[in-house]
Amino acid sequence: MRHGVTKAFLLGLFTLGLASPACSLHVSGEADQCTTDDDCRGRGPDFAGTGCAKAGPRAGFCVDSAEPLAEGECAANADCVDLVGPGAICASTSAERRRCVQVLTPECPIVLGNPFVEGTHILGVIGEVAPDDPAYARDYAHLAGAKVALDELQSERGVTLPGKRRFAIVGCTSSRPRAAGARLAALGAKAIVGPTTEEALQKVVEQTAPAEIPVLAGALGDNTASGVKGAESTVFLFGPGRDAIVSALGAALLDVSPEARTPQGKVRLAVVLGRGRELLGQTLTEKLVFNEKTAVVNQSDPTCGAGGCYRAFDAAKLTPAQLADELTTFAPTVVVPLTDATWGSTILPLVEQRFAAATTKPIYLHVVLDEEDMGYRVQPNDPAFRRRVFGIWPARDEGTFASFRDRFRKATSAGAGSPGPTPSLTAARAYDLTALAFYAAYLASFRGAGGAFGGADVTRALSDVMAAGARRVGPGPVDVPSAIAELSKGAAGRIDFDGVVTALDPMNGRVAPPRWQTFCVDAQGAYVGGARTYKDGRGEGGTPGLCR
Question: Is the pTM of this model over 0.85?
């Protein structure tokens, strides 16, 4: 497993050992889901095997057992122990109705903090967080980033909402996105961080939009929920969209290979796609422009010979040796790896071996979308190799990121003085968005009567937590007191929260505008940020060209 993180460690870090009753509830944001068992079966595969509860606090909900339950609704969490057994909270599904909702379930198997304390507010985190999810190792970082933020905001500084209420996180798997979104809606979640893939976004929002819960998604990709009613006011994208990634990549490509600026250019571009990058690869093929032609035209351009000037390789369908052989045969001018961190350690050495005797060797234009690929340390003492490695990543302040990295590694340490893993961009975005949701909820609580607030109130508060010109608040515990002091002003409260890596600028169509920064590899194999940046497909500052 990546980072050497064991499942036992992750479960020990995140799972609260609480019993759950045999009867599990499948919930959604509506006041009622069903009147008959057929209604449940019609809700899709996430609700397979459920029936419609006819009585009790879960009447109108699809449950794993359709047997009648005890009559009555709840007034407090303690009521739920008698009504449905341990492990449920008394949640508000509407202004008039409070019903017992199970917290820990197969689709939401993790809690951080204690949601069973009366008055605790729920924040949802959605990703591949269940131990059997394919991207469990990656999305551990998503959950860990959220945990570090919550701990810094609550544990270290003792910050509470009015009435001394606190937040708890419920972690749900994006492998069952509709069920995850439905459960968080029924739990009365104030905001949701995630999901981590654009494929899951629409299915989550179908369940959460009726409850007006803001969804702060750091996924790489586009807004797949744009057609869902209510999504226009509840979905916020903070990860770079596919068009933005392709735009930045195109600008960087012209910098490192100026020949690609002309229609006579013969730049041969190879793109290596890893798992989950299929949609990005499709957008890149359709929209990336070099040699003054789109990639789809370049792939059949005879100017570069029978193989064309462009080819995309699916790393999941080839062994590392096969991929290296095919790259060598194509003889690219530039290689763009859009893969996970295994590129540099498993594929790059094989490619370099095959090009060892070549007069012209490829340039590696690396786009960091999540983890920094330390495989480029393979030949860190070869200046000629280092000059062929050029990359871009979401712009960040190096000092701020270094501080977050140290705090993250300390917080995720397995003990015995051994620091935890280096945080990925997934972890940093989850940290940023959890802090953003917390600050917006804190402000909403001071604006609500008696401290009461809902998801719609958090949505309205978001703009005042990202308010240009207001007091700047950086990420980390140092700025928490000043942020709380400002937000405690209620109606007059405003701050300008600045994340570790996330663009929290004024938003255009609820999509944060990304800015990218160049990086090179130094003699020690470390990534070093450059002065040149890219935004809206244009390069700014610094000196265009390869690393020196």
Answer: no
